[in-house]
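Moderator note: this is an archived Q&A kept for reference. The question asked for a predicted structure of one protein chain; the sequence and the answer are reproduced below.
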Amino acid sequence: MLGASTLSVNRKVLVVENEIIIADDIATTIANMGFYPLDPVFDYNSAVDSYNTYSPDLVIIDIRLQGKKTGIDFAEWIRTHFNTPIIYITVLGSKIIRHQAEQTQPTAYLVKPFLNQDIIDAVNLVLS
């Protein structure tokens, strides 16, 4: 029988974030929790490609991405094809943006700046 730490390592998390420093910090936090962070991606097309390649158990998405398409666009793509849990992270806290994001049924919505503990709590809510 596999131990709990072995099972958690098999849980893959995709980080889609437009800032490399934040993406790396989130990936490090995910790894320290015992989960497997996929290489972060920074735009919609890379996010779709990574998702199709690795089938993550959780996706952490920034609403603002590089390029024309947003994190909400990516979340809508996920919802069209899959039921994977989504956690949004964003500096965009307006009511209109939040309403658009809520239409994709995220598990959590974190506004930057956030604490690492906020990520830990949200990921544990989904994967533990």
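Archived answer notes: The radius of gyration is 14 Å.
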